Batch of 3 targets.
Target 1
Amino acid sequence: MYDIVSRMQKQKKVLPILFTTLMLDMIGIGMIIPIIPSIFTDPTSASFVLHGYSQNMQYFIAGLITTVFGFMQFFAAPLLGELSDIYGRKKLLMMGVGVLALSQLLFGFGVLTASLVVLLISRIVAGLAGGNFSIAQAVIADVSEPQNRAKNFGLMGAAFGLGFIVGPLLGGWLAGAFHSAAAPFWFAGALGIINMLLIFILLPETHHNRRAEKNFTLLKGFHNIKMAFQDVDAKPMYWTSFLYMCGFSFFTSFISVLLLKKFGLSEAGIGTFFGAVGLWMIITQVVFIRLFANKFTEKKILRVTILLLAATIAIYPLLPNLTYAYTVMPFMAIAQGLSMAYMGALISKSVSAEKQGAALGINASLQALSQGIIPLIAGIGSGVIGLVSPFIAGAVLVVIAWFVLFSKRT
């Protein structure tokens, strides 16, 4: 009884701090979204860093910058989670947030000096440090009773959602207000340092029964992928999730470039667009998921939402003006929000109770892998075939995910 009361008290103290930490983290990470097009693909921008490079190479490098972040997260997230089992959550989380702050400052310096090498190094470091969300997941598990765990993990999703709204908005506005693409990264670095201090002062250590053995491996992410495709019961759902996330990553990696090239949006305009997408996703979480929860099964909802997402991805490069882009946006955001929520539920249902944690780690690795390989492919495709190619490829993969989910074997 004392343990339960103690855990509830710790939960009340820890969760608000963790929510703030994750939100500030995501704001800093999200600030780069409206900046990438202007510094890598817009020669008319004062902050453009790729003078002398062909358009093909500009698109390739824009994809590469996004890819290295996702790929480093793929390696780092499971490793940081295991390290926190050995050395404690607070220490590792504080270190991750601090290193992420330094990487933001380094990126700002790279923009000012127009150094591609510095920009790449900063994104590699940011990806390694950005894997600290796995530590945050472990903190939530430490302080949550089993019956409250899903609800508390939902709080983590809400923090990411709010950060996704504020980050691009703030990044675009700061770049426009100071007429410099480096300005958002000075702010993000300062925000990260404040975040690190908040963790140091306010967050208690939540993990006291530490593992003595140190048998972690740098290849844990690949081990998770192997596990996904060895689980006979859950394999179709993992395949569906992976193909779906690959398809959506094609969209997210180059939609900001499309907004610049086709509709002429500035950093502030791109940030506003992404902020609106994030707002619709939160509306989906708060309104539509609850509305459909007891009325339809997961598969009935996914039968519609996955195809709706594929259609909206395919149509974006064909839209004639920005008004149409904003009109299509709610359909895309709602379809994405519902699909991710109900796919997660189906994955959870496809594994036994003792495998729930492993399933969470496997799906996170699949998502990180998709974000680590797709932007580079999108960059190459955009340069060789044209800017329409990532959207067509993304739509095709999402449709294939639909067929995998609704095949007779699934």
Target 2
Amino acid sequence: MVRCPKCATEIDVDEDEVEEGEILACPECETEMEVVQIHPVKVNAISDDDDEEEEDEESDDGDEFDDDEEEEDDKESV
């Protein structure tokens, strides 16, 4: 039995049926949790901020301007 780190709902988790690193979801608030220990079972909430940072890193192509902004700059200088 573990508690959701966000809403404290008790979640029935069998130590023998989960693996370290497995992702669980709270049935009440839908918070995703990672199993960080299995004897006894302990979980950590996976924050949305981490997901957003990963997406930002993936979409960052190193350009200071978007393609549209560069085109507008070119038109203004003509």
Target 3
Amino acid sequence: MRYLLSFILGIVFLSSCNIEPKEINYGKDQCRFCKMNVVDKQHAAEVVTKKGKVFKYDAIECMMRDYKDAHDKVALFVVNDYNTPRTLIDAKTSTFIISENIPSPMGEFLSAFSTREDAEKVKKEKGGKLYTWNELTALFKTKKGVNMSEKKKSDMKCEAGKCAPGKCGGK
């Protein structure tokens, strides 16, 4: 009987620690890093820890800043596919673009694509520079952010309604 109880408790414990992303409740979920509500369906991101805890972000750059030195604790990094809003894709296999013609919620102009071909098409239209996951990770480890060292927050472009007070020039 004791072994049966241990077995059942083990099954319950293992099933409660699912290592998978959770659906983002846009407009209600809050970014773990900057505390803004997650509203942008093209730039949101999530981290799933090895223990199954899910953290949501309003922008890829918030996720990168929050976990830049803690990759060993993370099971999954997922990001929204720019071309397919609300669709979470594996960040490690994504191609990223930094283009000042594609504003993101925190002013880094950072977007993700499920394929390099999709990113290259957008780059031809909007300009910018492409990055792999490893290149992007290295970039965020060496700087506080991509554009923060080059521009003042008040100089950054932002889309109406996407900036919180004091963030990238928001009022």
